[in-house]
Specification:
By secondary structure, the chain is of the alpha+beta class. It contains two helices and two strands; from the N terminus they run H-E-E-H. It is 35% helix and 10% strand.
């Protein structure tokens, strides 16, 4: 909770993501990366587009990636 004030638009992005179907999310590590979990690729793409638009409106560079959860777990190669 202490780091969220250091991330531009964090409260707005979380609200927007949840409004559009995210199950939850937060700050990855020490930030500034955020993550949001949802069910289905369509929902993920919708959230990604909305968050990208939100940051663009404020002229803040942002990179959004959608990916599946790693179901295999950690492994050494």
């Amino acid at each position: 909770p202490h780091r969220k004030i250091l991330i531009p638009l964090f409260a707005e992005t979380k609200k927007e993501a949840i409004k559009n179907g995210a199950l939850g999310g937060g700050i990855s590590g020490a930030g500034p990366s955020q993550f949001y979990m949802c069910i289905g690729e369509n929902t993920a793409r919708k959230i990604a587009n909305n968050l990208t638009t939100l940051y663009q409106k404020h002229n803040i560079p942002a990179y959004v990636f959608c990916s599946e959860i790693n179901r295999g777990g950690v492994r050494c190669v």
